[in-house]
Amino acid sequence: MDNYTQVMDVLNRNVPLFIAMVAVLILICIMGLVALVISIVLAVKYYKYNRIENSSHLTGEDTARIILDRNGLQHIKVKTVGSMLFGNSYSHYFKKVRLRKRTKNKTSIAALAMGAQKSALAVLDKEGDPDMKKRIKLVPLITFGPFAFIPLIVIGVLLDVLLFNSSGWISITVVCLALLFYLFSLLLSILTLKTEKKAQERAYEILRENQMATEEELSNIKSLFKLYNIQYINDIIISALELLYYVLQIVAMLNGGSNSGASND
Q1: 214 — phi, psi (to 5°)?
Q2: pTM of the prediction?
Q3: What whole-number distance in Å separates Cα of residue 11 and Cα of residue 178?
Q4: Would you say 6 and 261 are in contact if contact means Cβ atoms under 8 Å apart?
Q5: What digits encode the pLDDT tens for the residues 17-75?
Q6: What is the DSSP letter of 74?
Q7: 99-112 pLDDT, tens digit each
Q8: Backbone phi, then psi, for 33, in 5-degree steps?
Q9: Which among 63, 134, 165, 257 is least buried, having the fewest CB atoms inside 10 angstroms?
Q10: Of 231, 258, 221, 245, which Cα lies nearest the Cα of 23?
Q11: Closest C-alpha among 46, 84, 69, 100 to residue 224
């Protein structure tokens, strides 16, 4: 009996387990749709605030450079990256604040927000923030960042294909590797959220103290960052659901193996 048949046989005889797996899959689909909606709303709001001039007439590059220099980080460069998904970021290893071209060169509210927040990550790094230290250690594996739910779903589908076309220890090994992947992704998402929120708060303080933004602009910036945070939280929920789904799969496989062993006896 192949692994797929074993799992389905166990699920047919264990209604609560079957219901739990179906419920988790439905929730994953729902959260995937929510993630898509959030991304669209975020893109619209970012576009809106990237068309409104900020009161300081500072570009994203100007903002980042001022904050870096005032915090003794003259060695950190401000560079342009063209990626729409991963452009705005801070790199500890390359000593760079990366900004999208339209963010770096525009004097908009969005440019002000991104320049301040990403340079604030560099400030946290300099100050030795414990969460930032953990995040930096995971940088080689942090490529997907807040958009991790996309590769997670793709990898999940591939794992399902491998799982249902293999058997025995191969299936268990594949699912255990999936568990480790999703556990890491969950940890990564939590660390990303914590450090991004800390950098946002620091950016508010710097912009207000240095009179680089009005209270209305700070309010707009907060609403923009709020959407980013909701996106991070959504990614955490998806990672947790994927983790739960594979735990349920392992339970089903183990029950299938136990039942097969009992029937052979």
Answers
A1: -80, 170
A2: 0.75
A3: 20
A4: no
A5: 778 888 999 999 999 999 999 999 999 999 999 999 999 999 999 999 999 999 999 99
A6: T
A7: 988 888 999 999 99
A8: -65, -40
A9: 165
A10: 245
A11: 46
